[in-house]
Amino acid sequence: MAHDTRPTQDEDPVSAQEPACDSSHGCGSCAADEPQRTLSRRHFLKGVGVTAGLVAAGTVPAFLTAAPRAASGTESTDAAEIPAGHETGIEHLTEHSGEVNYPGKPVWYADEPGDQKWAMVIDVKACVGCRKCVYACVRENNIGRESGFTYIQVLEMELGSNELELGNVDYEEGGRPDKWYLPVQCMHCAKPTCVYGCPVVATWREPDGIVVIDYDKCIACRNCMITCPYDARHFNWVEPEVPKNEVNPKVPLHEKAGVVEKCTFCVQRTRNGMSTACTEACPVGARTFGDLNDPDSAVSHILRTRRAFRLKEELGNEPAIWYVG
Question: Is the pLDDT of residue 184 over 90?
Answer without folding.
Answer: yes
